[in-house]
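dumping this here before i forget
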Amino acid sequence: MLLPATAGLQSAAEIVKVIERHRKADNGYGWLSRVDGHITPTFAAVACYRLLGMSVPDAEAVAEFARTHYPVPDGLSQQPLWRLDYEQAQVLLWLGHDMDTSKAAQWQKPLAYNTYFEQNGYPTLQHQAMAVRLRKISGEHGGSTTQEWESYFNERQRNNGTYNNAPAADGSDGHIVNTVWAIDALEDLGIRKHLSEAGISWIKDCQMPGGGFTWSPLAELGRQENMIYTWAAIKLLARAGSAPKNKAACIRWIEEQRDVQGGYRSNAASFANLTATYYALDALRILGASHRAAGNARSTVSRPSLPAAIKIFTAQIEAPGNGSPAEAVMLAEHLKIDLWTAKNSSPGWIQQAQTIADRRGSRIRFAQGNEEYGTYTSVAGFGMYSHLDDLVAPGDVDLGPYPPQKNVGMPWTLFRDTRIRKVLAERGRMIWQFNENEELTRILLDEAARTHSYAAVSSFHFGLDDFLEFEPFLMEWEGRLPMIGLQDAHGGESWWWAEQLAGFRTLYLAEDASWEGFLKALDNKWTLSVRHDRSRNGETQWSGALPEVRRFIEEREEQWAWWKNDKPSVPLAAVTKLEANAPFEAGAPEDGVSLRIRLRYDTGSSPNNQAFLEPQTALLSLEVDGREVRPEAVEAKADRYLICRRVSANARQATAVVRDMATGKVETIHVDLKPFALQGD
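structure:
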């Protein structure tokens, strides 16, 4: 496994420095921009040390990290992410420890994937292949399940011997990395696959003029050189006793991806990372080439400098878009949210919220942030996927209904040329939400980095989700596409979503809080997603951002950190004046004026399945113009509130006194009983 003896000591020392820069306090290896270690870069770091013929520093601590830090909490992924299990197991075995076989029962046959996410139920080939690899290294042999695995892969073999995610019956081409995964898995089953001359020629034709390889010689989408594609091609060709058409150009291209510190990039547009470094070192080993000391590495794409007048603003993307507009404005004010893109709001809701904000003299802007359910798009060879249609757009534009037919698939290129084009024309942007198929995601995000089809990638998500933990390959687009926090709100009332609103957000740099300022920030990658909530035990986590953007924001943390120095947080109650027939307001009277109070409740661990478990705040008193009033309780399936009906039309002020039941903190909330006026002490 070692690199050729000609590998220079200076170069090896540089690579070791690169690896150790990625060592984290938890003894795992991670990305430079992230706080914690992760299994994927830890796997790459240990693999690099093995390729260099060196021992891993403090290997026992690294093994303990790998054993205890599986990155996906139970039940949060939509399929078993066996690639992560394989990397965890391999790290432990490399470091002389036993792997965990408690999940072995899951590795018996291919998964039936949730058709809500992939309409055909095609499981992701990468993860199926890793399940087979796990069976092999754990000592699971043969049995009745071998035939099921063999049939699964055979169905996905193209005539030229390559493989892809969808069965070959769809007539599509193979994928160079899926071919590696499939052939390695079949070999672990004891089935040796020999590439035909047509297959070898196909792989050689993946080489680009620059010397690196793309994923298919016929690729129309995502046609770009990448270190993982180049590694896969070299590995497949060596297995067949062959080599790239232009071996010298291939070696030169790999070395051109070496940055000035000594690590390797996936391509010239990306930042160096441990995974790309591992693929580069292994590719050079297979080619019998030495890795040279870092020299005049090709620079990454130039970036515009930050304007002198730039400021930090806050966006909540796909925040609640239904229920009380008045409470949405109140929460935005308390949480210092400048831009609130409302998810799938009812007609007129955004306009009503904006009217309230404007009358209060607030700078908050409300816009659209929609997930267009029922949209399924396909790329030949991969499947038919949902969750690829999330958008942001100004609040006053009409994008029309979409999709044309719900749950009916369309080619992704048609989706691009119709829906995405329409959104861009109306000064909107598409957001990449979620897809667990790495090979497909790479294609479409490479396309996005080139054509702006997607303007940003979601990282933090409601609940405990962090897509960068579940789909670590997304880190390759750090610095190439902006990363945002996606609220992806569910439910009716923003009040019951308040903990999520207070937990994570997207910071963006702009000269003003306008929609145009936000778009410019997205287009220039001037964003940073921040999480600080109980899921992090009080620790701040970041995702995304160019180094200069992160520095600018970090240096001014006191301006925006919503959890510091007694800055405003979610109030203990929402007290709202309800005028007659006020739109979207639960409890609004047909005539006269009412007063509604929502207290805090423990609503369970998942905001997607809201419950009302225990009250967290209590109403101590409610007065109208100094006279105590007693509201009545209203309970609905997804709502709880107190209401004081038919407040006198001549009343001037309501005062609510509320206590936090955990801390004993008491908060007094005054409501000026004039239209649209609400303020708290």
